[in-house]
Structure to design on (120 residues):
């Protein structure tokens, strides 16, 4: 059974940093891609970033390029999202998602999410 557990969320001031973790189990980690999505208070969703565990290729939303970095540790079956220079508009619930590649990532397996709140 696929299991994704996010951690690392919390309350931070604008300009601060957080690192989110996504611990995965129940599938062959190296054969999958892991993405981070966020859901804003108004329920709009956005794909934040995605990484292929096969070739470590990545992609980012324009809104986070240069501020967020996605990385993986195949030995730990974990994907990280390093978030820097956080802004109040980054406030959302962050979810990690697993699928065979980044192109269909939103249709994959979702974790339960972790709340990130950025105060101004």
């Amino acid at each position: 059974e696929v299991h994704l557990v996010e951690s690392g969320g919390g309350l931070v001031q604008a300009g601060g940093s957080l690192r989110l973790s996504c611990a995965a189990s129940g599938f062959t980690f190296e054969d999958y891609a892991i993405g981070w999505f966020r859901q804003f208070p108004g329920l709009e969703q956005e794909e934040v970033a995605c990484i292929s565990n096969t070739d470590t290729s990545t992609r980012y939303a324009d809104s986070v390029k240069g501020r967020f970095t996605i990385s993986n540790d195949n030995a730990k079956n974990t994907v990280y999202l390093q978030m820097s220079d956080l802004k109040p508009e980054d406030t959302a619930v962050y979810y990690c998602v697993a699928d065979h590649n980044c192109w269909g990532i939103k249709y994959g397996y979702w974790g339960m999410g972790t709340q990130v709140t950025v105060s101004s």
